[in-house]
Structure to design on (1072 residues):
C-alpha cells in the first residue's frame, strides 16, 4: 500500500533520496596527521594542511580508504579499484583551502543496496548510488559575538563518506528505516560511530512529491538534518509544503532548504548572490587512488558479521524474528546477548536481556555499552537457575541486587543466603507448620475448595523467605494435604 | 680573486682547503648585496644576522669534521619557498607579512647539507610572469646591459628573476628557483647562467607556495652546470609529505657532468624552428649541435608535432590550477585583509583579493575560473588536458629514438623593462621553448652558450627523459665546455 | 567564445575579486585577447585521447593512520588578521 499525503486535489506520493555524510572512524584526518577526536578546544586539532596554509599538501590516510572499502563491501556495492579526488571550489569562512577535496567524477564505491525493515514486518530494497570520500569543513560559530562569526578548524579535513541513495523511498517511515539500517551497518562495520549528536552522521534529504503514475517533479534538498526523527519530520514537512505550492498553482523551485526543528518546517537558505558553480577538476596534488584487488579481498575476508546475517543466525538459534531483530539493532546489544547466550539456552538468554536487562537500563538511565549488570554475571545467573541453586523468583531478586551493587551473582547468593532450599525434609517440616497454623483452611480445602492449594504454597514460600524450591514445595504441600 | 667570484664547486674546495671560512665568504656576499641590491632589487629580504650565525655554526661544524655537502655555502632562496620564521611573500602584497612557521622540504634539505641562506629573492608575483615585473616588491634589474645601449634597464626574465640576477651579479653562489612554464630556464638564459628544472616529482613541492601544482618544480640556478648538479642533488629526494614526490634514488648528478656525449643521439625538433626567431639564435642552436657532434654525439631531426599548441594549452592548465590554488588567500587565516566598515564576508574576500593581488595574477585567476566554469570546462580545460596528453606522447615517441633533445632556451635575449608590456599574449610567448617540458614533466636545463650582437647572453636548452637528469647534465656540460662562456655582466660584485 | 561584461563580472564574483566599474572593460579586452589566442586549440583532433591530469606518479601513496600533527593552535592562529581567543574571526555570516 503506497503511503500518500492527501491534499486538496487528492493524494500525493512522496519521492525521497538521502545523501548521508558519515564521519569515518579514524585516528587522524583524511589528508593530514591531525587528530579527529570530538570535543577538543578550538583549533587544537589543526595542521597547516587543514588550515590551508601556503605550500601545504595533502597525503591520504590508508585507514580512511580501508574504511570506505569496508563500508562499500558492507553495502554489497561495487568497489572501484581506480578512483580520483577532485576539487570542489567555493569560498566559505570554514573552508580554508577555498575548495573541498572530494570524489566527484570517479567515486571509490559504486552502486549497492540496503534492505530495510518496516513496521508491518515487510522489507524493501533501497538502491545505493555511490559512496565517496571527502574532507569535512571547519565549524562556524555565529552566536558568540554580535557582529562576528568565529571559525574553528578542528573538523576541517576530517574524513567523511558521502553515501548517496537512489530516490527509492516513498514515506517518512522508509526514510527513517533507511537511516536506521545504514547507521546500524556502519556501526557493525566500525567505519562510523553513527553518533548523530556529535555530528558524526548528517543527512541531506531530497524530497519531491507527485501524483500517482507521474514522473519525478522538482525536488528540494533539506540540508544537514542531524537525527533520524528529524529526517522523518523534515520529509513530511517539506512534502506538505511542496503539495501546497503545487496545489496553489505555483511551481516548486529546486533549492536548498533548512529544517527548523523548533517550528517543524523547512525554510529556504539565504539565497546566494551566485548561482553555484563549483568548477570541479581533478586535484593536481593527488594522483589517482589505485587499489589492489588482493587488498580489497583481504578487507572483505576480515569483515565482521553484519546485521542481516546475524539476525538470520539468531532465528536459527531458536529466537523469534522479532527478538532477533531487537537484539541485532545495536551491535553492543548483540554482543551482550551473545555473551549471555554462549553455551546456554538462547531463548532464556534473550528473554532476560530483552526483559529484565532492558528494564534495568531504562530505570537506571544507563546503556547497553555500559550496562548495569555485566553480561558475564547475567550468564552466571542463568547457570545458577539451571543447576537449581536459584529459583526464578530468587533469580529476579539476585538480578536486582546485581543492579544495585554491581556484585557477581555468586557473591550475592553467599552474602544474603539466597540459596534455594531443596531439602525435602526441611520443606515438609515448614509445610506441616503452615497447615497446622491454618487448620480451618485445611478443612475448607478438604471440603472441595481446591484453589486454596496456592495459598498453602504461598504461605510456605513466605515462611521460607522465597528460598524454597517451588517444585519441591508444591510436592510437599500436595503430599501433606493428601 | 674576490670571494664572490668562486663557483660553488670552487668555494667547496676553498673551504675544504681552509683558504677562507664560510663567515668570510658569507660576509663578502652580504657586502655585495648591500652594495648592489639597491639597484638590482634581487633580494626582497636580506637575512644578514641569520646568515652570519649560520656561517659561524657551519665553520664550527667544519672544524669538528662534520661538514655536509654544501657546508658553509651562501645561497639565495626564491621567496616562494617557505622558510621557518622568515617572511615569505611569493612576491605578493597579499603575503607581505606572512611568516611561515614551517620550512619547505627543499630549503630544509639545503640546510641539512650545511647551506647558509643569505636571504629571500624576488620573483614575479606567485611566479606568474616572464620578466619579474609583476612582483609587488618592484622589478628586478638584469645585471647585464646592451653594449650599445647601457642605459636601458633590462629584465632578468621570470619568474625566478631575483634568483638569476643574484647569481649572475655574484650576490649568491647559487639559488633555489621554481619553474612552472620556464621560470628557471628563461631567467637563467637571460642572465647568462645555468639552471635546471628537474623531472616532475624529483624535488618535493612541500612548502613551496603553489602556482600550478601539476607543473611546478623546484630546481637550482648557478653559474656552472656542475654547480647546478651539486645543488640539485641536495634539493632532490623522495618526500612523503608530497603525494606527487617520486620515490626514486638520487644519483650523483655532478659525476654525470663529466660523462661526455660520445655515442649519444641528440634530437633536434623541427617544430622549434619558429618563424620570427632572430637569426643569431638559429645560428647559436646550430653551433651548439655542431659542438656536440664534434664531441662524438649524433644529431637527428625529430618531430614534436603538437609543439605549437603547448603554450595555449599551458595558459589553460596553469591558470585553472592557479585559480583554485590561490583561493586560500582570503584574508581569514593569514596574509592581507581588506574590509570596509560594513563588509560582509563576501565583500571582505573581494576587497582583500582585489587589493592583495596584482593585475597579472588577477588575469590568470579570472582565466582559470572561466575555463573551469560550467559550460566551458569541456571546451577549454578538458581539451587542454587532452592536448597535454598528445604533447607528452610526442616526447615519448621522440625519446624512443634519441637520448636528449637540444633547442634554444628562449626566443630572444633579455628585453627592456618597458618592452613587451602592452599585451599579455606577447609576454606569454617568452615561454614558447620551455613550456613543453613542464607539460610533459620532463627535465630541462638552460646553459649559457653565447652572446647576441648586443653582447647579451643567449642560452640553449637540453631536454631529457623523465628521471634522466644525468644525460641532461652530460649534454649541458659538453655544450658549456665547448662554448667556454666567459662574458660577465656589467653589474657584479667585486668590480 | 568571447566574454561580455556581464560574464566578466560573474567570473570576478566567482573568483571573489572586486572589480571597479572602470576596470571591467579593460579586463574584458585582456581576457578576450587571451581567449582568442587559446581558441586555436579547437583545431586539434583529440578524439579518443585520454586527458592527462597530473604531472607524475600513477597512483597515491597511502600513509598510516597515526596522529602526527596538530596541537599548536598558537602557530595556526599567529598570522590571523583577526582572532578571538582560540578562533579565527570574520564578519558575521548569516545562513
Amino acid at each position: 500500500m503506497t503511503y500518500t499525503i492527501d491534499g486538496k486535489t487528492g493524494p500525493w506520493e512522496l519521492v525521497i533520496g538521502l545523501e548521508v555524510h558519515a564521519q569515518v572512524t579514524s585516528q587522524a584526518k583524511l589528508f593530514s596527521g591531525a587528530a579527529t577526536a570530538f570535543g577538543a578546544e578550538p583549533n587544537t586539532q589543526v595542521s597547516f594542511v587543514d588550515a590551508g596554509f601556503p605550500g601545504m599538501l595533502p597525503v591520504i590516510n590508508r585507514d580512511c580508504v580501508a574504511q570506505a572499502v569496508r563500508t562499500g563491501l558492507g553495502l554489497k556495492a561495487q568497489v572501484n579499484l581506480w578512483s580520483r579526488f577532485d576539487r570542489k571550489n567555493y569560498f566559505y569562512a570554514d573552508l580554508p583551502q577555498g575548495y573541498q577535496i572530494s570524489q566527484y567524477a570517479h567515486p571509490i564505491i559504486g552502486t549497492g543496496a540496503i534492505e530495510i525493515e518496516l513496521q508491518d514486518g515487510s522489507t524493501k530494497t533501497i538502491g545505493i548510488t555511490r559512496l565517496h570520500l571527502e574532507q569535512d569543513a571547519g565549524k562556524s560559530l555565529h552566536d558568540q559575538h554580535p557582529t562576528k562569526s568565529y571559525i574553528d578548524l578542528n573538523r576541517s579535513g576530517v574524513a567523511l563518506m558521502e553515501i548517496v541513495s537512489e530516490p527509492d523511498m516513498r514515506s517518512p517511515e522508509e526514510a527513517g528505516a533507511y537511516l536506521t539500517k545504514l547507521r546500524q551497518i556502519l556501526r557493525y562495520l566500525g567505519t562510523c560511530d553513527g553518533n548523530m549528536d556529535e555530528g558524526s552522521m548528517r543527512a541531506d534529504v531530497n524530497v519531491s512529491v507527485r501524483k500517482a503514475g507521474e514522473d519525478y517533479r522538482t525536488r528540494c534538498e533539506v540540508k544537514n538534518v542531524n537525527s533520524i526523527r528529524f529526517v522523518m519530520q523534515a520529509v513530511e514537512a517539506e512534502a506538505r509544503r511542496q503539495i501546497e505550492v503545487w496545489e496553489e498553482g505555483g511551481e516548486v523551485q529546486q533549492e536548498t532548504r533548512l529544517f527548523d526543528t523548533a517550528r517543524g518546517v523547512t525554510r529556504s537558505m539565504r539565497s546566494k548572490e551566485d548561482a553555484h558553480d563549483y568548477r570541479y577538476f581533478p586535484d593536481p596534488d593527488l594522483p589517482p587512488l589505485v587499489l589492489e584487488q588482493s587488498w580489497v579481498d583481504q578487507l572483505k575476508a576480515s569483515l565482521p558479521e553484519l546485521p542481516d546475517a546475524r539476525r538470520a543466525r539468531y532465528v536459527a538459534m531458536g529466537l523469534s524474528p522479532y527478538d532477533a531483530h531487537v537484539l541485532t539493532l545495536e551491535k553492543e546489544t548483540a554482543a551482550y546477548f551473545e555473551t549471555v547466550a554462549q553455551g546456554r539456552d538462547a531463548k532464556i538468554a534473550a528473554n532476560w536481556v530483552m526483559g529484565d536487562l532492558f528494564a534495568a537500563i531504562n530505570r537506571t538511565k544507563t546503556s547497553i555499552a555500559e550496562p548495569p549488570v555485566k553480561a558475564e554475571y547475567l550468564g552466571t545467573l542463568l547457570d545458577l537457575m539451571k543447576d537449581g541453586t536459584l529459583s526464578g523468583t530468587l533469580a529476579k531478586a539476585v538480578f536486582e541486587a546485581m543492579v544495585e551493587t554491581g556484585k557477581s551473582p555468586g557473591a550475592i547468593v553467599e552474602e544474603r543466603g539466597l540459596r534455594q532450599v531443596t531439602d525435602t525434609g526441611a520443606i515438609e517440616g515448614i509445610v506441616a507448620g503452615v497447615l497446622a497454623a491454618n487448620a480451618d483452611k485445611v478443612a475448607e480445602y478438604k471440603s472441595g475448595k481446591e484453589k486454596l492449594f496456592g495459598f498453602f504454597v504461598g504461605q510456605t514460600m513466605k515462611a521460607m523467605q522465597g528460598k524454597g524450591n517451588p517444585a519441591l514445595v508444591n510436592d510437599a504441600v500436595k503430599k501433606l494435604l493428601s | 680573486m674576490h670571494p664572490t667570484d668562486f663557483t660553488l664547486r670552487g668555494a667547496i674546495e676553498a673551504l675544504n682547503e681552509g683558504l677562507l671560512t664560510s663567515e668570510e665568504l658569507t660576509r663578502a656576499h652580504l657586502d655585495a648585496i648591500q652594495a648592489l641590491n639597491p639597484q638590482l632589487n634581487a633580494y626582497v629580504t636580506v637575512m644578514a644576522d641569520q646568515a652570519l650565525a649560520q656561517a659561524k655554526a657551519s665553520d664550527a661544524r667544519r672544524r669538528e669534521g662534520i661538514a655536509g655537502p654544501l657546508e658553509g655555502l651562501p645561497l639565495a632562496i626564491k621567496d616562494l619557498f617557505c622558510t621557518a620564521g622568515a617572511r615569505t611573500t611569493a612576491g605578493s602584497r597579499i603575503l607581505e607579512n606572512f611568516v611561515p612557521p614551517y620550512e619547505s622540504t627543499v630549503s630544509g634539505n639545503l640546510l641539512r647539507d650545511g647551506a647558509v641562506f643569505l636571504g629571500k629573492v624576488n620573483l614575479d608575483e606567485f611566479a606568474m610572469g616572464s620578466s619579474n615585473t609583476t612582483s609587488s616588491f618592484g622589478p628586478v634589474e638584469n645585471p647585464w646591459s646592451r653594449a650599445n645601449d647601457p642605459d636601458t634597464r633590462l629584465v632578468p626574465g621570470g619568474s625566478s628573476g631575483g634568483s638569476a640576477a643574484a647569481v649572475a651579479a655574484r650576490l649568491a653562489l647559487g639559488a633555489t628557483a621554481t619553474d612552472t612554464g620556464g621560470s628557471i630556464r628563461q631567467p637563467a638564459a637571460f642572465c647568462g647562467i645555468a639552471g635546471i628544472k628537474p623531472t616532475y616529482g624529483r624535488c618535493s613541492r612541500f612548502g613551496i607556495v603553489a602556482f600550478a601544482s601539476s607543473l611546478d618544480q623546484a630546481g637550482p640556478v648557478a653559474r656552472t652546470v656542475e654547480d647546478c648538479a651539486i645543488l640539485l642533488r641536495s634539493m632532490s629526494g623522495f618526500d612523503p609529505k608530497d603525494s606527487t614526490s617520486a620515490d626514486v634514488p638520487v644519483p650523483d648528478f655532478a659525476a654525470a657532468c663529466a660523462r661526455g656525449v660520445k655515442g649519444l643521439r641528440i634530437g633536434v625538433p623541427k617544430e622549434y624552428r619558429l618563424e620570427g626567431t632572430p637569426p643569431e639564435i638559429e645560428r647559436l642552436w646550430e653551433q651548439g649541435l655542431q659542438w656536440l657532434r664534434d664531441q662524438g654525439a649524433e644529431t637527428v631531426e625529430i618531430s614534436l608535432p603538437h609543439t605549437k599548441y603547448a603554450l595555449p594549452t599551458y595558459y589553460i592548465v596553469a591558470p585553472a590550477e592557479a585559480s583554485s590554488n590561490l583561493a586560500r588567500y582570503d584574508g581569514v587565516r593569514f596574509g592581507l585583509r581588506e574590509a570596509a566598515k560594513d563588509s560582509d564576508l563576501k565583500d571582505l574576500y573581494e576587497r582583500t583579493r582585489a587589493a592583495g593581488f596584482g593585475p597579472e595574477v588577477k588575469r590568470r585567476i579570472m582565466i582559470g575560473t572561466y575555463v573551469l566554469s560550467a559550460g566551458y570546462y569541456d571546451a577549454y580545460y578538458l581539451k587542454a588536458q587532452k592536448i597535454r596528453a598528445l604533447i607528452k606522447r610526442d616526447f615519448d615517441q621522440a625519446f624512443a629514438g634519441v637520448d636528449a633533445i637540444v633547442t634554444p632556451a628562449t626566443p630572444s635575449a633579455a628585453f627592456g623593462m618597458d618592452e613587451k608590456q602592452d599585451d599579455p599574449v606577447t609576454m606569454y610567448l617568452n615561454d614558447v621553448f620551455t613550456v613543453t617540458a613542464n607539460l610533459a614533466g620532463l627535465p630541462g636545463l638552460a646553459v649559457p652558450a653565447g652572446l647576441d650582437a648586443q653582447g647579451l647572453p643567449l642560452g640553449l636548452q637540453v631536454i631529457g627523459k623523465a628521471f634522466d637528469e644525468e644525460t641532461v647534465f652530460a649534454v649541458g656540460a659538453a655544450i658549456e665546455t665547448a662554448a667556454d662562456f666567459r662574458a660577465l655582466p656589467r653589474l657584479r660584485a667585486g668590480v | 567564445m568571447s566574454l561580455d561584461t556581464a560574464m566578466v563580472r560573474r567570473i570576478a564574483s566567482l573568483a571573489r575579486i572586486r572589480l571597479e566599474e572602470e576596470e571591467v572593460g579593460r579586463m574584458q579586452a585582456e581576457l578576450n585577447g587571451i581567449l582568442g589566442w587559446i581558441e586555436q586549440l579547437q583545431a586539434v583532433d583529440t578524439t579518443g585521447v585520454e586527458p592527462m591530469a597530473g604531472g607524475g606518479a600513477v597512483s597515491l601513496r597511502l600513509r598510516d593512520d597515526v596522529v602526527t600533527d596538530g596541537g599548536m593552535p598558537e602557530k595556526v592562529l599567529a598570522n590571523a588578521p583577526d582572532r578571538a581567543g582560540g578562533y579565527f574571526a570574520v564578519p558575521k555570516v548569516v545562513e
Observations:
- The mean pLDDT of chain A is 93.
- Chain A touches chain B through 30 residues (CB under 8 Å).
